[in-house]
Structures are given as C-alpha cells and as structure tokens.
Amino acid sequence: MRRSQRFYALYNFFNGLSYMCLGETIIILLAVKLNCPDYVVSTLGALVYFSFILLPTGKLLAARIGAASSQAVFWALRNTAALIVASSAIWHYYGNTSGAIATLLTGAFLFYGCRAAGVVMIQPLIGNITTDSNRASILASTAALFYIASFIALIGICFVLRYSEKLSVLTGVIVTGSLFGYTSAFLLKCIDESSSLRESARQPLWPSWRKAIHNQTLMRQIYSSLVINLAVILTVPVSMLTVKRGYGISDRNALLFSLAQLAGSILLSKFAARIANVIGPRKVLMGAYLAFISMAAVWVISPDSASIAFLAPLFFILGGAHVAQSNSATHYFLQSTPVKQQVNASILIYVCSGGIGGLIGLVISGGLLQLAAKLSGSRPDICRYRLYFALATIILIPGFWVVKRLIPLPTDKRRALITWHDFF
What we know:
Layout: H1 2-22, H2 24-33, H3 38-50, H4 55-65, H5 67-86, H6 88-93, H7 97-118, H8 122-129, H9 135-163, H10 167-188, H11 195-201, H12 205-212, H13 216-246, H14 251-279, H15 281-300, H16 308-336, H17 342-376, H18 381-396, H19 399-404
C-alpha cells in the first residue's frame, strides 16, 4: 500500500507540472491570443464539467484493465488532445479564425473528456490505497504536491513569457505540458490495486442508478455538486478573462494573478482536511460556495484599472475555495457512500453534476457575457464584466440553500472550540 501511495504522490507532482502548462488558465490565454469571442472563452470553462458525459467510457475500460491502468490510458489520450489544442495556432497563423476556434473547442472537449474518463475511478482508487485513518492526510499531502509542482511550472512559464509572449511560445508551453503529462501516465501504471476495483467497475450502471434516485444522501450530493460546479464556471474562468480583456494586462502579469490563485490552493489543500476533520466536509463545502458568491460580488466594485491589492486577494480566495470544495466533496463522498457502491455512484454524481452543470453553465455564462456587452454599450471594457458578475451573483445566491441541504455526517455534528461555523 505504501508503494502505491508513493507512486500516487509522484503522479500528482508530474501531473501538477503538466496541469499548469496546459490547464484552464493557459488554454484561456491561448483563446484570447486567438481573438476568440468572450462566449467562446467562457465555453472553455464550462467544457471542463460538460465533458464529464464521457465518464462511462472510463468505467468500461476500468472493468477490463483496472482503475490505475485505465486512468493511465486516458491520461495519455488527454495529453494527445492537448496537442490538438496547440495545433489551433496553425489555423490562426493562416488567418482561419473559424478553424482555429473549432480546433480549440474540439481539442479542449477531448482533453477534458479524457481527463474525466480517467478520473472516474480516482475516488475508489484513493479509498483502495488508503485507510480511514490516513485518507484525509494523504488527500491533503498529495494535493499539496500537485499545487507545489504547479507553482514551480508557473514560475517557469512566467520566466519564459518575460522574454516573449508570442503565440508560438504559448503553444510551446502546451507541448511541454503534454510531455510531463505522458510521464504522469506512466507513473499511474505503477500503482497496485486490489481486484475489488475491477469487479466493482463491472457492475452495471442502470440498476444502481435507479436505486440511487431513492437515496436521499446521494441525490443531495448531486444537487450540491451541480450548483458548486456552476459557481466555479461563472467565476473562475471569467475572472481571468476580465483581467485580460477588462484591464488589458499582459499574459505574464495575468499569470501572476494565477500564481495568487495557486497559492490559495496550496494553502487550503493542507488546512481544508484539518478543518473538515473538526467541523465536517459539509460545512467546508458551504464555506467554499459562499466564497465563490462573495468573490463574484467583489468584482462588481472592481477598480477602473488593475490593482494588485485588489486582484491578488481575490484570486487567492478563488483558488482556496476551489481546492477546499474539491477535497471536501471527495471526503464527504468516501464517508457517506458504501465501498461497493462508490464506482457507480461517483459516475452518477460526475455525469449529472458535471454534464448538466456544464451545459447550464455554458448557456448562462455565454448568455450573461453577451447580455452584459449589449447593456454596457460604449462604456469601458471593465464595465461589462462588472455587470456580468452582478448578474452572476444574483443567480448563485439561491444555490447556497442547495449546498446547505447536504445531510450532515457525524463530524458535521461535532461542536468545535471555535464557533464561527455555528452560523451555518
């Protein structure tokens, strides 16, 4: 088990290097460099979740070759899809904007879809190579490794962009990320797992999904995950878009704010597990959702020109909220779902909350951006993004009630020495 934990830790490190080179931020910067409309950029953020509809393909392969090997295959395909994303620059070079956008969106969908199919078994796999006593700490430490590697990669990217911000340089960053990604795929194949995961993956989906409809705990997880995914779609990618087009700053400076977001992720990846052990993952999820709403509201009062004092804390909190909700959702799922049901249940949660949430987020974010552009008229660019976030805040507020309706776990019912969480 320790051997598998070590390889899982190494996988997270190289995956962190890969992620920062070809993750959401870099792809958004590439889209801006390709002169894509705002709604196309917001679509990229929604595709992260909409692509979860490809999750069942991951289960089919896992039933044949196992969870770790299945993820390794899809991770290799994921990085091949990243090369397709990079090839959109060729279309742009020859002046074909439509071809560049089509290639970018196709590659991004396959990239996120292969990632989704790969991680379909990640929660059961984590449960298989950890114990109840060390699971929270391993989740925290491996997440920290991932973000530390991302931090290293981000510093390297900023250094490269200091000398040139040409499209070819950004494309080279994505290609480099793909090479790191292929390495992480190899490390995944080195993880040992029990045969129970393969047997679990062979269980048919539909019978268990029909039963899940009557499982109140699981259904509330789906609803909660859906609104949290929607909050991420409406805030995180559009925040980077606002920095680029609302303030017109350079790619390198935009990545510095991404660095603040990463710093928040690293810090909260460690403390989120400790907080969840005290007050329970449900309340951490509630706090994370409130953070997304608050940051959307803060954008409404953003200054007319870029300010580090304003933007750095905002991105820091967004990064912290993102990792806190991700870790806490995993923690809640593993504690509330029996081991034999975890594979099919995790697919149901991801497909419903990701596929449906991604589609809703795609429509809402794109629609709000176009509406804000029309209503703001000839005002400064930052005005249309302020209006966008004002509308997004109003839409997200009712979702807090959905997250609050998650059924409390035993840890959620504990009373800690601190009392701020009593407000929840």
